[in-house]
Amino acid sequence: MKPSQPTGATDGEPVRADEESVLADLTDMLATLLDEYGLDDVEVRMETTFNRDLELESIDLVTLAGLLEERYGDRVNFAEFLAGMEFDEIIELTVGRLVEHVVQSLKVAEAG
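Predicted structure:
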């Protein structure tokens, strides 16, 4: 396997460190979460907020952290990402900001 295409922690599929691929992964993860609430028709875009638009609660973010770890392993640390934010930043967190964090984390892991 090429170093530029690390695999996911459990699924064996190549992980691509670009916004489009990460957004697709994250959309799938959020669909899994939202399906539990019967909200499977919500459109997820870069500007979608976790709190206001998706109405996710802190326990949902914990679940999302687990899904991120399943997909990306220890290359993406969601808890550390959130720990560096003020409360208001977490409340206004967008899917796009998380996508950017994941892309950056994957690129750093590839380079290291």
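Summary: The two ends are 16 Å apart (CA to CA).
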